Structure formats: structure tokens, C-alpha cells
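In response to reviewer comment 3 from the previous cycle, which asked for concrete evidence that the modeling workflow produces usable outputs, we include below a single protein chain processed end to end. The sequence was submitted unchanged, and the resulting C-alpha cells are shown without manual editing.
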Amino acid sequence: MDAGSTPLPAGDALVAVVLAFADQLRTSGVEVPTSGVVDAVAALEQVDLASRSQTRVALATTLVKHSEHLGAFDAAFERWFGPPAVPPPTAADDDALDGAEDATIRRRLAQALASGDVDALPALAAQAVRRWAGFGMVAGSDRYRLHRLLRGLDLSAVRQDAVRRGRGAGRRTALDERLAQADVEALLDRYRQMLAAEIRAGGAEVGAPATPSPDEVDFLRASTGELRDMRAAVRPLARRLAAKAAHQQRRSRGGRLDMRRTLRGSLQSGGVPLDPAYRHRPRSRPELWVLCDVSGSMAEFSRFTLALVYALHEEFSGLRTFVFVDDVHEITDVLDRRLHDVDPYALLARASASRARHRSDYGRVLRSFLDQYGGQLSRRATLVVTGDARSHHGDPGLQALREIHRRSRRIWFLNPEPRDRWDEGDSVASLYALACDRMAEVRNLRQLGACVTELL
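The workflow returned the following C-alpha cells.
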């Protein structure tokens, strides 16, 4: 065959090899008639037996009668005749070698998926990361490296190859086919998790500086440049959330089928229900009250929260906004929710400038909020508190928070500090969590957007 391979023998020995190879194919589920073996021997006598490609074509065209058996044929051919010899690499054919390496990784992954070889996946994940993740070549976040890897690996093509190879193992019923495809999908999900874990481990080893996207930057650790990028990213995020909320509202306008009204209306069309009638359940928009801590670094977090909440103001019947440091102040009239081009950053800074040097006093604020606005709360109101839940070793005002919760529908507390810092020092996050429906870690725009969406 090609350089480095042993050519097939001639004469009776050739017939014996073809017969044995045909038996191997039959064991793999490929239907090989006797006439196919005769045709294979005749075809091999007309080709160059030292050429691997010509030998493969001669055997495939004579022994394989159905395209779904090509996968089994390829696997048997590799076992019988060995992999093709690879010449030593030179500088002139680096691109060709890269292409061969790419194809090899994809082929081995498809074989592992088709055969259910879970043990082979970790090594294949490591190879793929070394080949496509770009460690040592380009800088980027783990998400960027995973996107770069998946684009180079082309899992869609690998999945199709794996399904094809599975079909080549023998005839299967429709149910077996669906089960086999489900197995391939499950292994692919597991392989994606291995890729992500391998990328995280690779980043830790090389110590590459991560460049996270704006929606992954922590509010409390962001630099001036990162805050600027986050402010640019919050507006597109707000538009996406508003579009998603509008789509959900349109979908919810339908109702359950009203059979009585439908049948009554069908009498006009001879009993054919041309115009189904539905029971439309009235959709009541919830009230939303937002109470934001604007002391220190909490001010930036509150500004992002207000930007997203006010982008969804049409989804709430009553949206009221309050800011606090050591006292509470309503700024609903300042943030005019009828204007879509309001800049919440400048307006909030103007509303909180007089108290920007003070420390937050949650106990005093909660008691003042209950005294001034508690009587206006209703069972439709959702209160969202944003802050770090640090009492500075003062009275946390837990009783006032419980009374506010009793008068409202629910209370969500959005905390920008990492969960492992809760209850450290003067933090009373777990204490407040007992009086709230949810105490959520909201360290970046992605988590904040998810929380705001859940409020609808």
C-alpha cells in the first residue's frame, strides 16, 4: 500500500484475506453476499495493491451494498489494514498537518460517541483544548476560549458522523435509532462539560489574564474602564429583557378553550367549529417597589438595577423607587418612567448627592420606610431591596422588615457581594434572608438580568 504499509498478497492468499475480511464485515452487521467477495477479488486484481486508497475503494464498492454500512466498513478497514502512514512533517506542509490533526480528533470523537466509549472522552477533550482553545496564542476569557474551541471542533458535524457510524453497526428499528441518537446527545453534553472544565484548568495553569465580557464583571470589583463598558452593555440588555417580557405577555393572552361557547358558535357553520372561543384569564400587572442602597460602591450597583427595572416599567402597574443611605428618599418623580431615554445614572447621582458621604443604616431606614410608606403597601406589591446587608454593627431593623413583608406580597433582597462573604464582619445577610422570600447573589449584569426577568 502507501509508504509504510504492507501490500496485499496475490493469488490464493489474496482470496483468503478477502474472505476473512468479508467475515469480519458480516460480524459487524454488514450483509456481504458471496458474489460480492468474487467481485472484490476481481476488482483487486485490476488495481495497485500497494495503494491504500485504491484498495479501499475496490473493497468498499464491491463488499458494501448499503450506505448505512460504510461506518462499519471504515472501522473494519482501519483494524485490518492499519492507519495510513504519515510522512515526517516539514515546514512546507504545516497547514496540511493541522488539517489532518483536526480531522483525526473529530474522527476519534465520532467513534467514541458512536460506541459509547466514555473513557476516551477526557483525553479527547484535552486534545481539543490544546488544538483550538488558543492558550499561549491569544488572550481572552474562558467563555471566549470555549466559543473558539466549539467553532473549530464543529460538534454538529461530529454528531452527524457519530450517528452515521452507529447506523453502520447494523440495521436498527426506528425506536433503536432514536435511543442511539439520544445516547449520542447525552455523551455530547458530557463532553461539553469536560471541555469547559479543561479550559478552566488550563487557564489556572498558564495564569492567563482573563478578559471577561461586561456582563461577567463583578460590580464591586470593576475598574473605571470596566464600569464604562458595563454602562454601554446595560442598555442592550434592557432592550432584550423588555422584548422578552413583551413576548411572554403576548403568549399569555391566550386562554383555555371554552367548549360551550365554541359549540354554540359552531351552529352557525353547520357544527364546524370555525371560530374557537377561549376563556381569557385577566392578567394583573404586579406593583414593584425598589429600595436602593446608594452608599459607596452600592451606588453603581443600584444604578444598573434601576436601568433594567425602568426598561420594564410597562410590565408593572405601580413602579416606585426609593434610595437610602442613613435615611430613605423617594425619587419616583425624578425617574420619569414615561421617558425611554432617561439616564438613571445622572438622575440617581443628583438625588443622592447630599448623603453620599454617610454610612448606610439599615435599621433606621427600614423603620423610616415602614412609618412613611408602610400604609401604602398592598398584597400586590413586590419590594426589591438592593444592598450589601451590612449593618455596621447597629440595629438591623429585622422587626421592621418582617412587618413590611407581612404587608406586601414578597420581598427580594439583591446582594452584590459574593455568597462566601455573607455574614462576615458586620454582614447580616442570612438574618435578612429569614425575613425575605429570596436573598440572591447578584454580582454582575448577567445575574442581575436573570433576577429582573424572574420578577415578571
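The longest strand covers residues 287-293. We consider this sufficient to address the reviewer's concern, and the full set will be provided in the supplementary archive.
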